[in-house]
Amino acid sequence: MNTSEFRRRGKEMVDYVANYMEGIEGRQVYPDVEPGYLRPLIPDSAPQEPDTFEDIINDIEKIIMPGAASPACTELETVMMDWLGKMLELPKAFLTENAGEGGGVIQGSASEATLVALLAARTKAIHRLQAASPELTQAAIMEKLVAYSSDQAHSSVERAGLIGGVKLKAIPSDGNFAMRASALQEALERDRAAGLIPFFVVATLGTTTCCSFDNLLEVGPICNKEDMWLHVDAAYAGSAFICPEFRHLLNGVEFADSFNFNPHKWLLVNFDCSAMWVKKRSDLTGAFRLDPTYLKHSHQDSGLITDYRHWQIPLGRRFRSLKMWFVFRMYGVKGLQAYIRKHVQLSHEFESLVLQDPRFEICAEVTLGLVCFRLKGSNKVNEALLQRINSAKKIHLVPCHLRDKFVLRFAICSRTVESAHVQRAWEHIKELAADVLQAERE
Q1: d(CA 417, CA 424)
Q2: What's the N-to-C CA distance of the chain in angstroms?
Q3: Which positions does the record annotate as the modified residue N6-(pyridoxal phosphate)lysine (predicted)?
Q4: Whole-prediction pTM value?
Q5: Quick one: which H or E segment has residue 361?
Q6: Mean pLDDT, the chain, as a whole number?
């Protein structure tokens, strides 16, 4: 959709909203539809090719408005999470459509998803331990619970441990900045010997620092064997798994209890939209379910509906699945795949430019849309380069530390980025690098 069409469609939407407000007294206060009405009205998977904007708008009035905002808000989310799960080729245990035990929910962020998973795992572990030893108090168990993540995991994982009131230990990553089975097993044995209770592991696919991937095929079986909840955080990288050539990066997700990634990061869905799936939704509802009188309704015990308020921290929620529905239909799966592939191609283009300049080095494998690079030399010279780049305000880079190295990160993430932008950015970086190196020699 170009800017001209965007203006036209935007005006049409204003007219739609205005017409709705003018005619609102002619609409029913409460819908006639029954729970489960929506799924039979739409396809069971996302279209491969784009739909027209007119078809989507017509479906809003035909399919959504009869159930707005309930049950359409809930039911479209359930179906969209199944659509997205199929695009990722998630195991069927994570989907809702076959009346299984799992399902998907839209959280506000990956940070929320990690916290929700940790709290659910904590409740599950406490119940299990108290069932085996009724004399154990919750406080006695809590002080011994310990969770694990790679030393490359996002800081939100550490924050989840702080909020959840449990110990969190960082597992040293290997030479590729990945968590491996041997290091995790060593930590588990040490902690069990010290009387601690391991209960939760976060594996990261596509770390923030360098887009490294924890080894799920190694870590997953250990978590299952040790009865620990495995949460997979693929906040950035998860979008790429809709492409068959990148799906192998998700291998091992079958061992996970929960999986999360952010369509708002790299799948063209506006913030906020963080997709989370669980194998057993009862693990979430068991941790968060409360039913005061003012929230009870006639269908809550029917088994026909999903009460997402029991799947999350907030009580209120927005109609976030509607924007997923628009994006998936406006682009089609093939359009979204092409978007991901273009960004990966551009990141490799930047990587090749860096490798052609002997002053620079690549610091981590380039798998998706992130390139970690630096000037050969001291951290000080790289800090000076970053300061010049960001002060010039033509491009913006965010750094990281990989072991003892200060590293610059070049991320391809704009919807409109082209090869010319990458080439221009590299020329700009080279010019500033020359200035930095000249200043260092003087």
Answers
A1: 11
A2: 52
A3: 265
A4: 0.90
A5: strand 360-362
A6: 91
The Cα 16–Cα 54 span in angstroms is: 13
Contact (Cβ atoms closer than 8 angstroms) between residue 395 and residue 411: no
178 burial level (CB within 10 Å; 0-12, 13-18, 19+): buried
Query: How far is it, in rounded angstroms, from Cα 442 to Cα 439?
Result: 5
By CB atoms closer than 10 A (0-12, 13-18, 19+), residue 131 is exposed
* Residue 97 neighbours by CB under 8 Å, 6+ apart: 39, 44, 79, 82
Question: Rounded CA gap, 277 and 273, in Å?
Answer: 13
Region 158-182: mean pLDDT is: 92
Q: What was the pLDDT predicted at 7?
A: 94
Cα–Cα distance measured from residue 237 to residue 370, given in angstroms and rounded to the nearest whole number? 10
Residues in the chain: 442
Closest CA to 113 of 241, 319, 337, 273: 273
DSSP 300-360: TTSSS---GGGGSS-S----THHHHHHHHHHHHHHHHHHHHHHHHHHHHHHHHHHHT-TTE
pLDDT at residue 296, as a whole number: 55
Residue 150 bridge partners (DSSP):
171
Read off the DSSP letter of residue 401.
E
Q: Cα(373)–Cα(360) distance, rounded to whole angstroms?
A: 7
Domains of the chain are 3-57 (1.20.1340.10), 71-318 (3.40.640.10), 340-440 (3.90.1150.10)
Q: What is the tens place of the pLDDT at every residue in 202-260?
A: 999 999 999 999 999 999 999 999 999 999 999 999 999 999 999 999 999 999 999 99
Q: Is the pLDDT of residue 396 over 90?
A: yes
Secondary structure string (H, E, C) spanning 254-287: HHCCEEEECHHHHCCCCCCCEEEEECCHHHHHHH
pLDDT > 70? residue 48: yes
- Measured distance CA(309)–CA(21) in Å, rounded: 28
Residue whose token pair is 């064997």 = 225
Give yes or no for a cis peptide into 43 (omega within 30° of 0): no
Q: Which range is least confidently modeled, 161-165, 173-177, 432-436?
A: 161-165
Per-residue confidence (pLDDT) for residue 295, from 0 to 100: 54
From 99-113, 167-181, 220-234, 325-339, the region with the lowest mean pLDDT: 99-113
Short-list 148, 160, 84, 169, CA closest to 116: 160
pLDDT of residue 297: 55
Residue 303: is its pLDDT beyond 50? no
